[in-house]
Every structure is written in structure tokens, then in C-alpha cells.
Amino acid sequence: MDAAEVIVSFLVVVIIIVSLLSNVVVLICFVYSAEIRKQVPGLFILNLTFCNLLMTVLNMPLTLVGIINKEHPGGGGFCQIVGFLETFLTTNAMLSMAALSIDRWIAVVFPLSYHSKMRHKDAAIMLGYTWVHSVSFSTVSVCLSWVGYHQLYASCTLCNGRAYNNRTQFVVFTVVFHALTFLLSLIVLCFTYLKVLKVARFHCKRIDIITMQTLVLLVDIHPSVRQRCLEEQKRRRQRATKKISTFIGTFVLCFAPYVITRLVELSSAVPISPHWGVVSKCLAYSKAASDPFVYSLLRNQYRKTCADIINRVLKRSSLNSSRIRGENGRSTIIQTTA
To answer: Whole-angstrom Cα distance, residue 223 to residue 187?
Structure first.
């Protein structure tokens, strides 16, 4: 292994650890909090979390082995199963993010009719579509033998291992697959979150007008208080932009390099570095590690749930230690009396 492969291997290990721990924490919060389970977005987050966990446990370690050993462990049948899961889980995760953006769009743009437009039944229908969509492309790729070990990405994924006369079909399938997964999800993300940003900026502008009118009326207000109000205005305007930029930016940063590489790979005239192929795959894997923070753990509701769980664990451990000390004290008194 050269230095680049060592660095990439270390990166994959870090992604596996962070993704596993963070997604497990999200799952624990979902199980612990009845309030989170009642909310419709919780279904999308649960589906996304399971996809990320399965990808972390099943696909990432095998990619790490492929980087180290330059080959995939197991036979062709095993590699096809892994490739099927890789295609299914990645597609399902992308569409789950799109579903989350649609939920936020309805909640912000149509707040009064949100509970009638987005019910648990509607969320289940959306999740059903993501599963049918994901299973369809994954099944077609396996049935046409377009799944196998790809040396460029050191993993079992889409690849044309059959004769040259199937190349055109494989190119069409790959382009359609990425257009209806990555590109479709990106368009939905941009449309919905930009609408959300527009509404958020409108509300911020109204609040700013009220704040400025209040500051004008309060002539004798202290300059420091006035300055804090103006700073809060600025932070309020930036907060929504940062959130929207994070949602769209992480999606593009993690998935776009891999998707573009897969499309460029279809042209045999453009050589691709093996190191870049693995790096682009690692970037796609890193989305599974960032999703828990982007969609869950940085929100106040999940942070409060994590704090409640930690407090309960610490309280229980302190009670157990107090009980043990009490029992030790009683045994010591009995022994002394005897």
C-alpha cells in the first residue's frame, strides 16, 4: 500500500466509526422520545438512519478490505448481493433526503394546512415510492449482470462485466439511473429549500421592520442594547441561509463527485485515477456520517433528548453506586458488631 491508500483507508475507518456512532444515537433518540416518533419527519429520518447504518455495517468495511487487498472478499454471488444493497441503500437515502425537504417545504410554506397535507399515511406513501424506486433499479442491474467488483472504486457496485454489445444499454441505464436518483433529488432539494428560504427571509424582513420601528420609538434606549438588537437581526437573516446551504451543500459535496465520476467513466477516452475513484466513493460514504448531524443531532429536540438520556443514565448509575455504598456500610457495621 502506498501513502495515498493508507490515508484513504484511515479515512474510511473514521467514516465508519463516526457514521456508526452517530446513526445509533439517532436511533436511540427515536426509540426513547415519544414526541419524535409522533412527528411525520421522524419516519423519513428513521428510514434514512437505517439506510446509513446498513451501508456502514455492510458496504463500507468491504470497501476497506478492497482498498487493502485490491480484491473483494467472497465470490461473484456475494459481490452481487453487496452491489445490490449498495445501489438500493444509496438510492433510498437520496430519495429520503428529498422527502424530508418536501416535508419542510409544506411545513413552512403551508403551515396552516400542514397536518392535513402531510400525515403519517402520506409519509408512508412517499416512503413506499422510495423503496419501489430503489428496488427497481437495483433488481434490473442484478438481473442484467451489471453489478460486480469495480477496481476503480474498490467495491461491488454498478459495472459492465458483460460483452461489448451491451455497452450502449449499460450507458443508457447508468445515465437514467443517476438522472432519476441524484439529479431528481437535487432538483427537489433546491426547489423546496429555496422556497423555504424565501419564506424565512420574508418573515425575517417583517421582524426587522418591527424591530427598527421599536428602536426608533425608544429614543432613550442604551446604545449597547440597540447594538445587540441589530446583531440579532443579522444573525437571524444568516441562520436560515446557513441551514439551507448545509442541506444542499452536503448533498452536492458528497454525492456529486462520485456521480460525475461514474458518468465520465462511461467515456473510455477519459482516464480516471484509481485514487480519485476511491476518494469519490469515500465522499459518498461520508454522507452517511454527516446526515445524523445535518438532519437530527444538531436540532434542539434531539439535543434535549440526548441530554435526558445522559441524565437518566448518570442518575441511575449514581443511585446504584449509592446503594452499593449503603450495602457495604451496613455489612461493615454488622461485622464490627459481631
So the answer is: 45
Name the residue with cell 417583517: 206
List, for residues 159-211, the tens digit of each pLDDT value.
886 655 578 899 999 999 999 999 999 999 999 999 998 888 776 666 655 66
With beta carbons less than 8 A apart as the criterion, state whether 335 and 63 touch: no
Query: How much of the chain is helix, strand and coil, in % rounded to 5?
Result: 85, 0, 15
Note whether 185 and 94 are within 8 A (CB): yes
Q: Is 154 left (phi over 0), alpha (psi -120 to 50) or beta?
A: left
- Quick: pLDDT tens for 139-148: 999 998 899 8
Strands (E), 92-239: 147-150, 155-158
pLDDT at 330: 59
CA gap 30, 22 in Å, rounded: 13
Domains and CATH numbers, the chain: 3-298 (1.20.1070.10)
* Cell 422527502 sits on residue: 99
C-alpha cell of residue 48: 434514512
**3-state DSSP of 138-164:** HHHHHHCCCEEEECCCCEEEECCCCCH
How far is CA 138 from each of CA 36, 54, 57, 171, 176, rounded to the nearest angstrom? 31, 16, 19, 15, 13
State the pTM of this model.
0.84
- What's the CA gap between 150 and 274, in Å, rounded? 10
CA-CA-CA-CA torsion sign (309, 310, 315, 317): positive
